[in-house]
Amino acid sequence: MLNLFLRPLRIFFQALIGNDTPRQTAWGFALGMMVGLLPKGNLVAIAIAMLLFGSRSNRAAGILGIGLFSYAGSGLDGFAHRLGSAVLMNPHLRPTFAWIYDQPIGPFSGLNNTAVIGQLLIGFYLVYPTYRAAYAVAKYVRPRVHVYLMKYRVIRWLRGAEVGVQWGLDK
Amino acid sequence: MKRPKLTAAFRWQYFVPRLIVVAGIWAAFHFGLDPLLRWTLVTTSEAALGAKVEVADLHTSIRGGELVITDFAAANPSKPMRNLGEAAEMRLHLDVGQLLRKRVVVHDGSLRGLRFDSERAASGALETMPGSEEPSALDPIMAAASDKALAWFDGLTGQLEQDLTAALATPKLLDDLQKRWPQQYEALKGRADKLGSKSKDIESTFRELKKNPLRNLDKLNQLQTELDATQKDLASTLAEIKSLPDQAKADHLAIDAARKQDEQFLKDHLKPGAIDADELNRYLLGETASGYLSQTTYWMEQVRKFVPKKKIAPPARSRGTNVLFMARKQPTCLIERVELAGEARLSGAPLTFTGELTDAASQPELHDKPLRLRLRGEGAVNGNLLVELDRRADTPHDSLKIDVPKLPMNARALGNADKLAVTVTPGDASLKADIRLDGNQLTGLIEFHQASRLTANTPALHDDRIAAVLQQSLSGVDRLEATLRLAGTLKRPDVKIDSNVGPQLASSMSTAVSTYLTDRKERLVAKVQGRIDEQMAKIDAQRQKAQDELLAKLGENQQLISQVAALMGSGGKPSLESIGIPQIGKNFSLDKFKR
C-alpha cells in the first residue's frame, strides 16, 4: 500500500537523485519524447514504450519525456499530418506501406496513419538532439540537484524507501 | 564509460510478467472465446428479439477462420411455444486477415436445417415482454372500404325489406275519405230528417192555430219565423247536397295528387344506390390483401431499421487520417455469400426451400453490391423470392419480387360471411409481386390468378330472387383475378385493387336490384291505383245513392214547407185571407152609409 502512494514520488525523484547513468537518463528521456509525440493506441507507440520500460533506461526521465512531449505532440499534429500524408502518398513509398498494412498485424501498427508517420519522423529527427540535451542535463545539472535535494530528510527517506523497494522490502 | 551488455540492457523482470499476462490473455481467448461469443450472441439476440434465443454449441477456429453454430433457435415473441426460426447448423467461413483489420468478412457459409414456426418444448417468453403491436397502416383504408360496402349492402337490405305501404299518402287519404263520407252522409241525413219533422210540426201547428187565428196571431207570427228559418235550412242543405259532385271531383283531384306524390316517393326510395366496383373489390379482397401487405410493409420497415439508409459516422476524434490503401472504404462486417436450406409448413403442407444470401454488409453504402436474398421453395409452394436492398446511392432502394406459378389455395370466403361474401372453391393460383421502395415512396404491382368457381352468399338478403340473380351472375366466372397496385409511403400506404369479381358482382347486383326494385315499385303503384279505383267507385256510388235519397227526402220536405208557406201567405207574413178568416168589412159595403 505504501508503495502504491509513494511510487509516483519515488519515480520523479529517482529521475533526479537516482543512481542511473546520464546515458540511461538521456535514453529514457529520448524514448519518452518519442512515445509522447506519437498518437497512442498503435503498435509503434506500444513498442517504443515497451523499449523504454523494458530497457535499463531511466523510466522517470522517460515518463517526464512522455508528459512533456504529449503536449508538444498535439501542437505538432497539423504538421505531422501533412508530413505523414506526403510520405504515405509518395508513389515510391506507398507500396511498402501498403505491404505493411496488408500483413496480419499491419492495421494495428498505425503505420497507415498520417499523424503516426509524421510524429514518428519528427521523433526520429529529434531523437539525437534530445538525447544530447538530456545527456548534458543529466551529466552537469543532476549532480548539483542531487546534492541540493539530499539535504532534505524527506528526500533521504524516499531514497531509503527506493532502496527498500529494490531490496524487496515492500512485499 | 563502460557500455552495458545487451543482456544487461533490458529489464527482464519487466518483460516476464507481461509475457505471462499475454499468455494468460491468449489462454482466456482460446478457451473462453466460444462461451463468450455464445453468451454475446444469446444476450444481444434476446434483447433485440424480446424472446428466448438458444444456442446449443458455438465453435470457432481462428486459424481456420471458421465459426460453427449448432442448434440455434429463436422463440417467437408473440407465440412463446413456437420458434420464429431455428437452424440445425450455421457454418461461416471468416477471413482471418480481415478480422485483424477489425472487419468481419464471411466469404462463404451455409445455414442448414432452417425451420420457421416450429414447435418448442419450453416456453420462449422472456420475463419482460415487448409492447403491444401497432395497428397496420392499411387498416383504416380497408376498414373504410368495408364500411362503405357494408353500408351500401345494409341500405339495399333495408330497401328490400322496408314496409313502404305505411309511408304512402294515397292509402291514408282513401282511409280518411272512407271515414269522412259516412259521417257527412249521416250529418246530411240527420239534417234532412230534422227538416222533415220540423216541416210536419209547422204544418200541424199551423193547422191548430188556424182554428182561432185572431187569438193566435202572435203565435202565427212566431210560426212564420220558424218557417222562414226552416226554409233557409232546407235551402242550405239542398245546396250542400247538390255540391256533392263538386266535392267528389275535388276528392278525385286530391287522390290523384297523392298518387303522383306516392309515385315520386317510391321512385326516390326504391332507387338502387350506386356501388363502386372498386369499393366492392376492396371489401372482398381487402382483408386478405391487407394481411399480406401489412406483413410485407412490417418486414420492410424492420429491414429499414436494421439496414438503415446511411449510418451517420460520428466525427473522427482520432489524430491523423488512416490511409487504407484500397480503392474504397470497406464495411466493417460483410457476408459475401451464405447458402440457405430449410423447411417450413405452409397451411399444414411441408415446404422445403433453398437459396442464398449475398452481400449483406453492416455499412451497405460502402459495399459495391446490393444485398440479395434469393429463395426457392418447393412443396407447398413452388416459387421464387428475391429481395434486394440497395444502399449504394443517396436514396435507398428496396425491392421484393415473388413469382409463384403454382400456389395451391384452400377454399375461403371473401368479405363478411354474415352479410355478403364470395366463396372461392379450392384451386391452383399463380402469384406475381413486384414491390419497390425508393426512399419512402412505395410502388408495387401484385397479380393474383386462381382458376376457381365463385359463389355469392347473401345471408342478410331474405329475398331469394336477388340471391338467385347474384348466384347466376357469378356462375359464369371460373377464375379469380386480382391486381393490387401499391402507392404512397411505407407509413401511409395506399392500395388499389382491381378484380374481375367486384365489377361482375356490382353489375349483377345493380341489375338484379334495379329490376327487383322497379318491379316492386310498379307492384306498389298498381296496388295503390287498384285501391283508389275500388274505393273511389264505392264512395262515388254511395255518394250518388245518398244524394238521390237525400234529395228525394228533402224534396218531400220542400213540398210540405212550400204548402205551409203558401197557406201562411206568400209575403212571408201570415194574412187573414190566407188562413181563411172571414173579413166582415169585405162583406158589407160601407157605401151605403155614405151620403
Describe this structure as you would to a colleague.
The complex is a heterodimer of chains A (171) and B (595). By secondary structure, chain A is mainly α. Chain A has one domain. Chain A is 80% helix and 0% strand. Chain A has helices at 2-17, 22-37, 43-54, 59-75, 77-88, 94-102, 106-109, 114-149, 153-166. In chain A, helix 1 (2-17) packs across helix 4. Chain B is of the alpha+beta class and 595 residues long. Among the domains of chain B are: 14-123 and 331-366, no CATH class; 165-269 and 529-573, no CATH class. Chain B is 47% helix and 26% strand. Chain B has helices at residues 6-9, 12-49, 96-100, 139-161, 169-210, 217-242, 244-269, 277-306, 464-475, 501-568, 584-587, and strands spanning 53-61, 66-75, 83-94, 104-116, 333-346, 349-361, 371-379, 382-390, 397-409, 412-416, 420-424, 427-438, 441-451, 454-457, 479-488, 493-499. Chain B is rod-shaped and about 205 Å long. The model of chain B has no long low-confidence stretch (mean pLDDT 79). Classes of the chains: A mainly alpha (171), B alpha+beta (595). Chain A binds chain B through residues 21, 23, 39, 50, 53-56, 74, 77, 80-81, 84-85, 88-89, 94, 97-98, 101-102, 104-108, 112-118, and chain B through 1, 4, 8-11, 14-15, 18, 97, 100-102, 318-325.
